Amino acid sequence: MKTKPKALVICADGINCEEETAHALNKAGFETSIKLTRQILNDPKQIKHFQIFVIPGGFSFGDEIYSGKVLSLTLEKQVMPVIMDFIDNNKIILGICNGFQVLVNLGLVPEPGLTDTCVLNHNKQHKFINRWVNLRANHSINNPLLQNLDIFELPIRHGEGNLTLKDDNLSGLINEHAALYYDSDVNGSFHKIAGLTNKNGNILGLMPHPEAFVTKYQHYNWSKHKDNNIPNPTPGFQIFLNAYNYVNC
Amino acid sequence: MQKTSTIFLATVIPHKIKELDSIPLYFIAQDDDKNFLNNESQIQKILSNNVSDKFLAYNPNNWVELLNILKNQNYSHFIIKKFLPGVTDTKANTINEVFNLFSLPLHVTCGSGFAFNAKNIKNKNNYSEYFKYKLYNELTEIISVIDLNDTSTFNSRFWTENTINKDHKPKINSVNLDLSDAELIELSNSKLLALTLAEMKNIQKYYQSTNTKNLRLKLNLSPKPNDIELEIIAQTWSEHCKHKIFNATITCHYFDSENKLIESKKINSLFKEFIESPTLELMPEKPNLLSVFSDNAGIIKFDENYSVCFKVETHNSPSALEPFGGAVTGLLGVNRDILGTGLGAKPILNTDVLCFSDPFEKKPLHEKLLPSYAIINGVRKGIEDAGNKSGIPCVNGSVFYHTGYRAKPLVFCGTAGVMPLTIDNKETHKKYTKINDRIVMVGGRVGADGIHGATFSSIALNENSPRSAVQIGDPLTQKRMLDLIIKARDLSLITGITDNGAGGLSSSVGEMARLTNGASLYADKVPLKYPGLDYWEIIVSESQERMTVSTDKFDELSDLASEYGVEITDIGYFHDRGYLEILSNDKTIAVLDLDFLHNGHSDLNLKADFKINEKSAFISEIEYLDVKQDNNYKASLNEILLSLLSHPNIASKEPVIRQYDHEVGGKTIIKPFTGPKQDGPNDAACVLPYLNSNSGIIISCGINPLMSFYDCYLMAVLAVDEAIRNALCVGCNMDEIYLLDNFCFPDPIESDTNKLGHNNLKCLVSIAQGLKEAVLAFKAPLISGKDSMKNDFITDKVKLSDIPTLLISAIGKIDDINNCTTASFKNSDDYIYLLTAGNPGLAGSHLQSIYNLKTNHLPNLNLSQANLLYHKINQAMNENLINSAHDLSEGGLAIAISESCIGGDLGARINISKLFQDDILNSPETIKNLPFNDNNNAFKLFAEAPGSILVSVSEKNKNTFESLFKDHKTYYLGRVIAERKFIVEDVDKNLINASLEEIVKAYKTPQPID
Lengths: 249, 1010
Hints:
Chain A is an alpha/beta fold and 249 residues long. Chain A has 7 helices and 11 strands.
């Protein structure tokens, strides 16, 4: 029997979506370990035993200073070289919601090595928003983790998802890394961007929650009394399947 | 950081500062003057994002430069805000953690700044007053307003001073109880003990007894009581902890119309007779009840592997004074209740039901009352902060506005949790604390915050309500603790657990000590936020985010805790010596006999005089009117429909709910809103207990406070009915539904300052009686509850009392989640029916509130019929016969249909000619005198009918459906239509023809809550 690819999900210190994220990974075929931030900081080398490293949603360190800021500071200080190796070995880094904010703070998206190009600021409404939104995957760039997806729905649950560039000259660069767009302007984000990926396509950060739509029951309007055309596999699950196929190729 | 020299100010600002937008201010203290300067780039990296914000740092000599920047952006004033000493500063705690990680010898405290231009502010004389509650709450924060054109208005000491009296050496004060009655009462009042004279005398007697003297002699303790002991007793005996009113003996006399005594009955305890006894009666047929009324929450077996538990708490008094902090600590507190249930359950969902005063009120009735808008927005924000940051979805709730909540807002916070039925062959719904187990405090540290919360919530608010009872809360610390405890539970490192809520360690250790019959606690080992606390403060402080656990594996627990970044401390041990002992430096400093501590309080004896055949109804000191109505104007049905839809109690709560994460965890499968546009309200939530489960937990609530003005007994019945109908509409199994009761009452004890106490007591008795009847009729046992009995505000000039309110929360089970039903219409051409076991009424309805109707025309509910009907509806759902189900509640039939249309993005055409004809014939005068242009039809459409459910059915199931319900009162009303219109017809005329756009617009009227 073929061994399953291994997934690592970081948790603790205010991260709170680790359970459903691990569930989605397992469902897609991974063998998932959930590790505490301190366990990873104390032994960063263990990361290389995995094929995908996921930073799930939540409020890491209470989102104090800026959202995702403190987790990115701690990872940067202690784990960055291992993460860079991980990326160079064509393994996947997935940052969801708070995890996306961490990837942006670390400068892993839009592209490792480019720091301080953009941030995820407060939504233009200055409010936390939990609702389902229509999204569009960008296939004019290399976007392997969003393949088989075109226009689809996922929930957003964030107060700071408003992608803001350091200056306008960066817009061309950012657009080349825009993996995912909102269908409408939900939070003021630059060019309605909902997710960023690197050139190689193995790093993806996105505000919406794919792990929250891996079964039809998680959709806001499922009902056995009505045909709602909920896709199968669900779009969220498709993203995890894509990750599985990517590392299993 | 004792020796601070220079304090730097760091900040990050956007290029253009917006007026009154918050700018973070960091006051950074250092050991050595050079530390800041040497590390400035490191500090910048930590505090700034280097993209959209600019980092600025100043020493105390050049801070004027910051003011110049603001001045150049055309501002005239700058406000600096900071926390008062001792208030939890979560941001500073996190930054200090980071400084530590980067080995920076610095220490930060946080504040915020706000720039404004005086020409935009009305009240120029007193900015502190003007910005109070808009920008700060004086109980936790302080501001300094700087005139940018006159820098002498700023005193740099403002940001350097942040001291608590740290030099205070902890003392033990002995207390003289050789006092007269009057002096005893004075002592209780002055120390905020909230004890009665009888109780003070019990204490006096306890210290005079030989047993007490011998015990104290043996432990080398002075025979005189001390402040530690008195405080422990006061917390343990508080109304909040002992529920003395619910356990009081109440003698009820019943008189006839000529004031002749007909009958006398004694109620030994409202709790035992009306809450516990129906559950005990139902127990034989409810095998899944695992633990009721004994633990922090009621526990039910969910399936072969898991149990679920549910608890709802109130946090009214703290929310009245510091709404944000009150709501945060309320929600985090009930999360801890769940964490402290059995061997520790994992919270999986929150609920919040809020009762607020008039949001449009011009000015509070008393200067000490916070403005209504400040309470509303603070509480909302607090629930968002606590729930979202804890990763627990807020799945169900309600907001109810009425001027009758002016004394205190009601903030009901609920949490349900899940745990495996057994771990290591131990049943998790029990506790296994044994002799010699260590007492371990887990989580946050102890400070002077939250002192006297238990006793404070046991009295009315007044001008001198203490600021120390108010806290902010720290969701991150609690989340870390929560993660640790669930892991420790799974590794069998915990033998028992309870939360530190009201009464602090005195309550948690005092309660757990009953499991072994004794405990010894080392006060000097308790970790403190800062020195300077007296021992009694350490013991009763309600500082948040702490649990008390018992363990026989302290070292393993300690190793695990350091991985989770949680502080744990061994603070003592359990024994069987029959007393609770407090030690410091190995010397006994306080001791109390456990039996006396838990049973020494006095039972209350109360008396209630009833008139036979007279309903108990709430009488308020002040008269409430929603609006002044023009008596000559006769509203049309269309107008009534739209005004009801836009009433704050009925209009969509979507803007609020969208700010609460209601699906984190991925288990919320019926969400607050549904339909193609995600805007149709659902009646209840369905949440999976664990991912992959095929069965779901249903959560709903019922509340009907307006009925308290007419018939308290009926009010309780209707609250139960509403909670059950809401659960049913989502598909809840009617044999697997369990209830929680939360009573919020004005003081029911009559006194010189509480002339209406006796009437309140009558209301309380009637509500308890109504509750029992409904619980037995629906066979839906109560499993947990809470009462809050002093929801008053009393000063010399004004007395305000909240409306007696009973919240019923329901937790139930749906065996197969595929059978979940929602409130929205599904398909055009479906048949619409009203199924009912009740009769509509006008009293207590929203039609009455809006149009100020003078009527006591009551609704009616046939409980036994309702129970049969609901079972039948559930059967029909499971047999795929019902496409949508929605209960009739606020606003009656027309509102229910409107909501089902919104959810389905479909229309409806109904004919009401045959509806409620008997009801109209039975009350012709009442209905004739209504002030509308079509009174009969206004009654049919907008009166509020208990026991009524609106359903839609496919054409193919029509006949099966009709024959299934042939023995029930069933009205066929019409069809769902594709055209987005709501059309109501009579025999020969069109009554309402409203477009869905109009309906949606009214329903989405902006809420008076941000």
